[in-house]
Design brief:
The protein has about 300 residues and is an alpha/beta fold. Helix content is about 45%, strand content about 20%. Helix 1 packs across helix 3, helix 1 packs across helix 4 and helix 2 crosses helix 3. The radius of gyration is 23 Å and the shape is elongated.
Length: about 300
């Protein structure tokens, strides 16, 4: 298995562009990562990477070796998946990503039951509101809200989730109650925006009498953590756009109040992304099917539509 370990390490170093990042991803020390690359280079008789104190780049030989290395690992993963399917004992580690609010409120509570059913599966759940890349980050599945940019991935829709514009009563008392999206712009309301590095300009898609329309809202507050935006809204600092499941408790308690109700937000798609190869893995397929069933039921009870 050491040669395969070396190949896996090479692929992660190549994709992440860093020995230390690959080591963290593989949960081995930088020294082990470097040793594996050196062993592979010695075996092949070529240098796979050019190393300096600041940069690491693949050589021509490294670039040529990468495609074949990925093909080898794909073949091994596929063979292992077939064996596990026959023995009905899925095992290994799943790497799953999800937005913070979705992951904390809907996904994470369902995980213990799944792992109890399959004690030989380990889960690494990564929560972040930024966009993720399944290939470069070594993910098996990524749950998301919205529309993905990468058309090369497989998409499995779960539901259309209702969203709401809301603010704290203190904010409304101070700034007034906007009736629609036009009032948000006309009256210069403070809109709390979710934005992360690389994100496009933020617009809120609202349903008007003439159909969906994008409103280029603005405000002084931005963050790449959706829960921070909710905290700011609770503190009376502005208006947020959220899936209803994220703020349901605050709406029930009255700490947040719906605003601009004449132009409600267009529902957002909840779905999961995966590659065709990953779906062949029994543990990936089992986790996806389990989560789709659990989330569909939870969202059906809350009023979401289109659940599979």
């Amino acid at each position: 298995m050491s040669y395969l370990d070396n190949i896996r390490t090479f692929v992660r170093v190549y994709e992440l562009g860093s020995m230390s990042a690959a080591g963290r991803d593989l949960r081995v020390s930088p020294a082990v990562t470097s040793a594996r690359i050196s062993q592979l280079e010695e075996y092949l008789g070529v240098r796979l990477f050019q190393r300096t104190t600041r940069n690491l780049t693949a050589t021509e030989q490294g670039r040529a070796f990468y495609d074949g290395a990925v093909a080898v690992l794909d073949a091994v993963d596929e063979a292992e998946a077939k064996v596990m399917h026959l023995t009905e004992t899925p095992r290994g580690t799943l790497f799953v990503a999800a937005p913070l609010g979705l992951g904390r409120r809907l996904l994470a509570p369902q995980v213990p039951e799944f792992l109890a059913r399959y004690p030989e599966i380990n889960l690494r759940l990564r929560l972040s509101d930024r966009a993720v890349d399944l290939t470069s980050e070594g993910l098996d599945l990524a749950f998301f809200l919205g529309q993905p940019e990468d058309s090369n991935l497989r998409i499995r829709k779960i539901a259309d989730c209702p969203r709401v514009l809301c603010a704290a009563p203190d904010y409304i008392a101070r700034r007034g109650m906007p009736q629609d999206g036009s009032a948000l712009l006309r009256d210069g309301h403070d809109c709390l925006n979710l934005r992360y590095p690389g994100a496009s300009e933020f617009q809120w898609l609202l349903q008007t009498a003439d159909g969906p329309r994008r409103f280029a809202v603005s405000g002084r507050y931005e963050c790449d953590d959706g829960d921070v935006l909710t905290d700011w809204a609770l503190a009376g600092e502005g208006i947020i756009l959220k899936p209803e499941f994220e703020v349901a408790d605050h709406l029930t308690s009255g700490r947040l109040v719906p605003v601009a109700t004449q132009t409600p937000p267009v529902p957002v798609q909840l779905a999961c992304l995966y590659t065709h190869r990953r779906h062949q893995d029994p543990k990936t397929r089992l986790f996806m099917e389990y989560m789709i069933a659990q989330l569909s039921e939870v969202l059906r009870q809350s009023g979401a539509t289109g659940a599979d």
